[in-house]
């Protein structure tokens, strides 16, 4: 009878070798997986770190932009308030100017009215003076005629006295002033020879 003992030892050795190979392969696979996942984790960590940095920078930029916007809004509100204040000041100045112009226009109209009245009174007084001067000339002529009658003792008729009075002359002088803004800007002298 034959014993197969050596064959069973070979099988055990083969199985042991196989397990050793599997263990070695499993260890190798674990190391490769560890290395792979370590690499992936490292790359992911790098990406996450980079993205975190970029996100942080973006958040800082966003914060700065928000501050800039707030500052610009404050400046805009200040400018609006300044604009409103200037518009109010302008309206007050315009109202004051309009009131002053109205007052000055009233004063000017009053002065023009007074000037026209004074001019009319002056013209009336000039006409009265001219009339009085004419009367004076006539009276002087008549007086001169009567004096001649008294001195010569001659007989003169009333017609002769009237004829002699017509030959008498008088000189009338008229001065005209031109007034602008209450000041005399020109003066005109007019001389007339009056016959009576």
From TrEMBL:
<protein>
    <submittedName>
        <fullName>Keratin, type I cytoskeletal 18</fullName>
    </submittedName>
</protein>
<feature type="coiled-coil region">
    <location>
        <begin position="62"/>
        <end position="96"/>
    </location>
</feature>
<keyword id="KW-0416">Keratin</keyword>
<keyword id="KW-0597">Phosphoprotein</keyword>
<dbReference type="Pfam" id="PF00038">
    <property type="entry name" value="Filament"/>
</dbReference>
<keyword id="KW-0403">Intermediate filament</keyword>
<keyword id="KW-0175">Coiled coil</keyword>
<dbReference type="InterPro" id="IPR039008">
    <property type="entry name" value="IF_rod_dom"/>
</dbReference>
<feature type="domain" description="IF rod">
    <location>
        <begin position="1"/>
        <end position="157"/>
    </location>
</feature>
<dbReference type="InterPro" id="IPR002957">
    <property type="entry name" value="Keratin_I"/>
</dbReference>
